[in-house]
Amino acid sequence: QVQLQESGPGLVKPSETLSLICTVSGGSISSYSWNWIRQPPGKGLEWIGYIYYSGNTNYNPSLKSRVTMSVDRSKNQFSLNLRSVTAADTAVYYCARGYDSSGFNWFDPWGQGTLVTVSS
Amino acid sequence: DIQMSQSPSSLSASVGDRVTITCRASQSIGLYLNWYQQKPGKAPNLLIYAASILQSGVPSRFSGTGSGTDFTLTITSLQPEDFAVYYCQQSHSTLLTFGGGTKVEIK
Questions:
Q1: What 3-state DSSP class applies to A88?
Q2: Is a pLDDT exceeding 90 seen at residue A103?
Q3: What percent of chain A has pLDDT over 90?
């Protein structure tokens, strides 16, 4: 079955760029939407955005000015760049597949998540 | 933005209890409502999609009902492995949003 795995630095300095990669195994990235979702410690879930395999994107307006997502079909990976980070961006970052059926869509499966701390 | 609110934010229950969690959308979302379970230190796991369809492999003690703005997740006969945080999520709008979560604790 499809599995997702996040990777990237666990510590980022304020004002720098947070960069994460999600590697998809057990299936092709050439379908579905591929999402990033984050969860500050002890808090709820916030959807960051998605990218389709075609490269089309949809970002949360609250983060849109700082977010870029890309997809690398040759490596079955997609990535997240979040610029100008502050302590408020400290969170567990999850990647997740957006599954679509008959117009309905949901997140399944999810990666295990990676904690990114913003601190000098 | 479509705001999702859940109630209660937390509850205490015993093994074998029937538990009901409510999710309310700030505007009508039809059946575009999903439920997830999250255990400590783990990623959320899909339980129900399209308001009432049980994801494959999820025990039948979980069920979802509702449409429009009001939805419920019911767990009949709560099991020890069900103590977790539950989130609803709407997929009606292009801005996908989650409820704040409901923590189900052991009484």
A1: helix
A2: no
A3: 92
CB-CB contact of A87 with A14 (8 Å): yes
| CB-CB under 8 Å, A60 with B31 | no
Phi, psi of A87 (to 5 degrees): -60, -25
pLDDT at A59 exceeding the cut of 90? yes
Exposure string for B32-44, b = 16+ CB within 10 A, e = fewer = bbbbbbbeeeebb
Q: What are the tokens at A8?
A: 């990237």
How many CB atoms are located within 10 Å of the residue A94 CB? 25
Where does residue A24 rank: exposed (0-12), middle (13-18), buried (19+ CB within 10 A)? buried
Q: Do A107 and B55 touch (CB under 8 A)?
A: no
Query: CA of A120, closest CA in chain B: separation in Å?
Result: 25
* AA identity, residue B7: S
Q: CA-CA distance, A108 to A97, in Å (whole number)?
A: 5
Report how many Cβ contacts below 8 Å link chain A to chain B. Answer: 50
